[in-house]
Task: structure prediction
Amino acid sequence: MQSPPAGMLGIDFGTSNSGVSWAAPGGTARLLPLEGEATSMPTAVFFNAEDRLTHFGRDAIAQYLSGTEGRLLRSLKSLLGSPLLNESTVVNHEQISFQKIVEIFLNQLRERAAQALGQAPRRVVMGRPVHFVDDDPARDAQAQQSLHDAALAVGFDDVSFQLEPIAAALDHERRLTHESLVLVVDLGGGTSDFTVVRLGPQRMARTDRASDVLATSGVHIGGTDFDHRLSLGQVMPLLGYRHHGPDGREVPNRVFMDLSTWHLIQWLYLPRALSQAQALRTNYTDQRLHQRLMRVLQQRDGHRIAHEVEQAKIRCSQHEAETVVDLSGVEPGLAAPLAPADMAEHLGVLLTRTVHCARECVRRAGLQDTALDAIYLTGGSSALRPFQHALQRAFKDVPLVEGDLFGGVASGLAYSRV
Result:
């Protein structure tokens, strides 16, 4: 039997996307292909009820959006530290725990790494946010333990963890020509993490980098939270959110909260939830809005709408121009507008909290904002223009450096123990 390859695997198990890298001892980390040539893969699993096969990543999302019968699960990382993780759900007429689904996805990452490397790796550094769960150390520790257990279950026998923003810093350091004081900003699908760290080519050879990390901070806000707010603000009113009924009261909002939260959507398709939604009809003055809501639930269009919201957010951010959320599957010609002003309105509170966390990190490091040489951005959500503008207003004259948004953390993880 061949021995496993020498080196270290890094796995960035993300809320929205995941990446895997490999570094041989003393070598340069390389991102491994996960889907064709793509080195990042959506953290998505689709259990196909027609062919009884399990699909992953872009393939999983495409299967679901094509109308194939089955179950799509995303945002699995959001379940870590939650009581839901050990609950079960029905997949193809079988009960399966969400912990097991995490293992299934993690095993797929390991298998695809083994295919790229020629052998299955045994050693792995897993990324983790500064806080899986805000202000609850016990649940935070449980979240890491659950991920550790999943890694052991799929065949790794040497499992360690590194904070994701520190991993991003280790990757960024490889490109520096002089010593720098950097605020690393890692904004992913579920968390925003910050690290103030001293980096430089002369420091890379040190085995103990603890003294170079001046401060860390984090908050449980990320891209899925932005999508949630935009969905509530622009899409859910078309289904009755904040609509007033005959008695002058608003329609109960629980269904809209769940319908705009990716990992809760599937619960709305259960018979009891459908019955409860149907019973809301008497709370509506405009019955057309209730008919739209029921059509979304009966057609199981919740994830499709969440996907459209996410894509509209990206378009609006990239072009800084108005776009629309396509809802024609609910009703011909139906669409929700999304303009930069809407983004600013709905995301303002979240962006303020996120930037405050960044400034708190610098304060903990005992520094003035002007002492920073750069702000290094990683994580897909850090590309959001309103977020970048908010950072620039808070840290005037500090340059923003956009790194590998989807691969920087994974690469840095592989450097953590090589």
Notes: The chain has a mean pLDDT of 92. The radius of gyration is 22 Å. The chain has twelve helices and 18 strands.
